[in-house]
Amino acid sequence: MAKKFQDLSPSLQMGIVALVPVVLAVAAYMYWASPIADERDRLSAQVQTLRAQNQSNEIFDQQRLKNRARIAELEHQLVELSAVVPAKEDSEGFIATIQDASTTAGIHIRSLVAQPLAEHEGYTEEPFKGHVDGAYFPMMDFFNRLAQGARIVNVTITQLTDPKGGGQGHFTVSSSETVGVDCVFTTYFNSSKGAAPAAPK
Q1: Is the predicted pLDDT of residue 13 greater than 70, yes or no?
Q2: Element (H, E) at 128
Q3: Domain layout of the chain by residue ranges
Q4: Homologous superfamily of 91-190 in CATH?
């Protein structure tokens, strides 16, 4: 037969009274605190995941900045190399280079005639047959300016003459002009073809 609470011994009554708050606390924890703790753990895991993603993104951003800097460097190198060996034929630019050098050096270009292109694997030769005359030291300055220019220019001297012959048209030779030069100016540009050298005219 079940006993009433009043029938229990005082020590048991005190134990039950003391146990009730504990049971209520556990029930309250299970009802309110446990879901909150689970949510906290879930959010903590998300924070760790986001931190890992942020670190990965920072590494990616750093690599992206390095790649952009490398691309800019390569583009700059490409521009410099294009000045040395253009990507395509640029006869007008090459003629302007020769004319600028001759004007600055103080010599005269009497003729400049384009010759057939000569294709090689990876590049193409673009020669011009010419005749120039002037004083000796300005002539040396002219060739030196071509050698030190940005674009590659190869000069092959075929003949030294007096300044009165070898040119085209009518012109007056001054007394200061002492030497005439028949030569071939050769420049280059990039080519993807690997054909044999072009046959001369």
Answers
A1: no
A2: strand 123-134
A3: 8-84, 91-190
A4: Ribosomal protein S6/Translation elongation factor EF1B (3.30.70.60)
